[in-house]
Design brief:
The chain is of the alpha/beta class. It contains 9 helices and 14 strands.
């Protein structure tokens, strides 16, 4: 929803519209993204430019570009909008406080790549939350949740179990990982059914990504000469670099892929990354804050 607070003769809604046009590079596309009529959008941009006393966009034949003034204020405008969006959350924390213990679990193929980079920002925003994090397989985490040992688990969806609340955060594409000198390394896209005489490197039994990988291969009717199981991505990528085989990996493992080539799989396939909590469990302020923070991170990742 557009903000309506006025700042020195213009309002935050106009700044939101300005940022949307700058992001889309088109009044028409920005109006579609905002769900408003283009004349209304153009009118608000014109009022903003009038209030500032200068043009923000150069209207060219079939495109628009930011003027120097537009370039200069874009970052500040985005920051103002982010601050305004965060105000209700800051107010709620100031009024009631968000504190107490929070026990979070995550699977090994998500914790170091997605969750770990978020933890510093979360603890800075909520310094009074006593955060505990543990790693485990999907089965282990679900069992720990049912036993009350953890409050929420970040993993690949769906999972089996009665009384669970599941929320998808984003979808993450899979890639075929090959050595840099592999005969497929020059390809941008590949169909798995075209593979032959390749050894598939996968995680050991117990990792949900193993099952997802095998499912992807089955659907694609991919044929491999054999499998080799490893405990972690680090080992898999070392084996790929050594020319020992190929693997199917999620995008967030890209940080380990130096010396390898990640090739887009056709048709595109992905995993659903999300969180799970108990439906019957009391939704504490700490847990509510954490799941809200995860949703913010998921939305940013979609952009």
């Amino acid at each position: 929803m557009a903000q309506k607070t006025r700042v020195r003769g213009f309002d935050l809604r106009q700044l939101e519209y300005f940022c949307a046009v700058a992001r889309a590079g088109s009044f028409t596309k920005a109006a579609e993204d905002l769900g408003i009529a283009q004349p209304s959008l153009s009118e608000q941009i014109a009022r903003l430019e009038q209030g500032l006393g200068a043009a923000l966009f150069e209207r060219l034949n079939r495109r628009i570009e930011l003027t120097p003034l537009g370039e200069a204020i874009l970052g500040k405008a985005q920051a103002l909008l982010e601050d305004a969006a965060a105000l209700p959350d800051h107010f709620e924390r100031a009024r009631e406080g968000v504190h107490g213990p929070l026990r979070v679990g995550a699977i090994p193929t998500i914790l170091p790549y997605f969750l770990a980079p978020l933890l510093k920002g979360f603890t800075e925003r909520y310094p009074d939350i006593d955060l505990h994090v543990r790693e485990g397989t999907t089965g282990e985490l679900v069992e720990q949740m049912l036993e009350g040992m953890i409050d929420v688990a970040v993993l690949s969806l769906p999972v089996e179990g009665a009384g669970l609340v599941m929320k998808e955060l984003f979808r993450e594409p899979f890639y075929l990982a090959v050595a840099g000198d592999h005969h497929l390394a020059s390809k941008e896209k590949v169909q798995l059914k075209r593979l032959s005489e390749e050894r598939l490197l996968i995680l050991k039994d117990g990792h949900c990504l193993r099952d997802e990988t095998l499912s992807v291969c089955d659907r694609a009717r991919a044929r491999f000469t054999g499998h080799f199981e490893a405990d972690q991505f680090l080992t898999i990528f070392e084996l790929i670099r050594a020319g020992f085989g190929v693997s199917i990996v999620p995008e967030m493992a890209r940080t380990l892929s130096h010396g390898c080539k990640l090739i887009e799989i056709e048709p595109k396939t992905s995993r659903r990354v999300g969180y799970v909590r108990l439906e019957r469990r009391y939704l504490s302020k700490a847990l509510e804050a954490f799941t809200g923070y995860l949703k913010e991170a998921g939305e940013k990742r979609k952009k």
